[in-house]
Design brief:
Helices cover 28% and strands 24% of the residues. The chain is of the alpha+beta class. The chain has 3 domains: 51 residues, no CATH class; 252 residues, SGNH hydrolase (Rossmann fold); 146 residues, Jelly Rolls, CATH 2.60.120.1360.
Length: 518
């Protein structure tokens, strides 16, 4: 209640207002003091915290940002403060640690693709007791060159470096130029990044997607084929659905050609009707029976078409594990990017389904290109990763006894530490674990890290002209993806020529021509 007197009519409420203003001032000062105290504690913690962090366990290290990192004072534009360009020797020196001990890069900071191509050819390495580890695929390619009419399928597995067919496209193009073939091989119908520069796939919205293998945590095996993904239609309801495949005009494939379309499919519960149409005619129509195990439907395109649409109708529950655009013979190369994977997810798959898939597609060569997702986990030893990768390789070899496998090692990656941009310190350890796993499993190995220039090379690639890597200092640009695949293919071609020099007589006479399946 406010009492107004005649003597002080305008000032009777003044003490209450002064009290309220004082209370606000006290609260504001308390808040300000509290914020200053918090910032002071954070500053002291940042100054006292070890730069390398505090190791909690073998898999966990606790880190705290430095003052410069917290204030955003260290960024990639300050690159010259961490590195010195030595023009006389065309190298740059990393001043991390003792400034008197320079770590020289094999490449100049602003390199060119020509300087990278001038590096020594990085050889494919073989186990001591398995110098013939790639003889299986070499023999198949030599037979194609001699005139054999066979389809030789190659599977290129990898992490996000392979997305959008960036690396596989160059490999496929070179192999098909030299040994024949066409098409893009099997493509996933449920990619994590639904982008493919060579072919466009659109689907009706009632298809369900499998969980990506890298995220699969259930104890029951994952129902997938060699693409490690699948799509399916809902159970026990009448439905119509479609999948449309269209060409994309790009320079690498001025006219994407394929003479056969293939479908890895299983069906359960009830029959379903499948009709495959081009814009001008129907090339297949039939009922897919119920309780059908995985099969490969192999359909002739009977000419060149810009698009193909698969129509499904009925109450069945088809599961589709991949769709291929192939030639009758030559080389087919499947691009299989597995985002966030370290290459250790094959053991999560249903072994029977996976083995059936490998058998149906008749895979001859597997390329395993992983490692980038292991790098951020800095550890003293990577024996655990060696063992995990070894399990995947031996599983694949058990399912495909005559397969050749090439493990492509981890590429260089860089990070900022205390304002200094440099390669991760564990790249070589991870590379060594991959090589050892490959050799134990009787597989060949190619060292990407050394092929691209070794320590700090990813930084040179990121500042190259044209740019060959992104500024996350992990992923290749499109030009960089092509270049690193070119380096790999150069090494493979050299070994193929050596194989021919030793075994050429066995392939001098063309083999009997195989009639393509209809």
């Amino acid at each position: 209640m406010i009492i107004r007197s005649q003597r002080y009519p305008a000032t009777a409420t003044l003490p209450l207002r002064i009290f309220a203003d004082a209370e606000k001032a006290v609260r504001l000062s308390e808040i300000t003091a509290g914020l200053i105290l918090v910032f002071a504690l954070l500053l002291l913690t940042s100054l006292a915290f070890p730069p390398e962090g505090i190791r909690i366990s073998s898999r966990l290290t606790l880190t705290f940002p430095s003052v410069k990192e917290a204030l955003g004072l260290t960024d990639y534009s300050g690159f010259e403060t961490s590195f010195s360009i030595d023009c006389s020797e065309e190298g740059f020196s990393n001043f991390a640690g003792d400034p008197n001990r320079f770590e020289k890069s094999s490449l100049p900071l602003k390199c060119t693709p020509e300087q990278i191509r001038a590096l020594p050819v990085q050889p494919i390495e073989y186990p001591q007791d398995r110098k013939d580890a790639l003889n299986g695929i070499m023999s198949k390619l030599a037979a194609l060159r001699a005139g054999n009419r066979e389809l030789v399928r190659i599977l290129h597995y990898g992490d996000s470096q392979l997305e959008a067919d960036r690396m596989t496209m160059y490999l496929r193009n070179q192999l098909q130029r030299e040994f024949g073939g066409g098409g893009v091989g099997y493509v996933a119908l449920s990619p994590q990044i639904p982008i493919n520069p060579t072919v466009k796939i659109s689907m009706s919205d009632n298809w369900g997607y499998s969980i990506p293998a890298v995220k699969y945590k259930h104890p029951s095996p994952l129902r997938v084929g060699h693409m490690l993904s699948s799509v399916s239609l809902p159970l026990k309801q009448q439905k119509t659905a479609w999948i449309k495949v269209e060409r994309r005009p790009i320079k690498a494939y001025p006219s994407l050609r394929f003479s056969r379309i293939k479908l890895l499919v299983a069906n359960s519960f009830a029959p379903i009707y499948l009709e495959v149409k081009t814009p001008t005619k129907t090339i297949f129509s039939n009922i897919i029976p119920s309780n059908m195990d995985m099969q490969e439907l192999n359909l002739s395109m009977q000419g060149s078409h810009e698009s193909v649409t698969l129509h499904f109708r009925g109450s069945g529950c088809p599961e589709i594990y991949g769709l291929a655009l192939d030639f009758n013979s030559g080389v087919a190369v499947d691009n299989i990017p597995l985002r966030s994977s370290s290459g250790i997810d094959f053991v999560k798959a249903d072994v029977q389904l996976l083995a059936k898939s490998y058998s149906l597609i008749d895979a001859k060569f597997v390329i395993m290109q992983f490692g980038a997702n292991v790098v951020p986990q800095i550890m003293k030893s990577y024996s655990y990763y060696e063992e995990q990768l070894y399990r995947q390789l031996t599983l694949i070899k058990q399912m495909i006894p005559d397969v050749s496998i090439l493990v492509v090692g981890v590429s260089d990656m860089a990070r900022r530490s205390n304002g200094v941009l440099a390669s991760y310190p564990n790249i070589a350890k991870i590379r060594n674990a991959q090589r050892q796993a490959a050799f134990r499993a009787g597989c060949a190995f190619w060292d990407t890290y050394e092929a691209m220039g070794g320590k700090n090379s990813i930084i040179s690639w990121a500042y190259a002209s044209p740019v060959l890597a992104t500024k996350d200092f992990c992923h290749f640009s499109n030009n960089g993806a092509t270049l690193v695949t070119e380096l790999l293919y150069r090494s493979f071609s050299r070994d193929f020529k050596r194989y021919l020099a030793t075994n050429g007589k066995a392939h001098a006479t063309p083999l009997a021509e195989n009639s393509p399946s209809q």
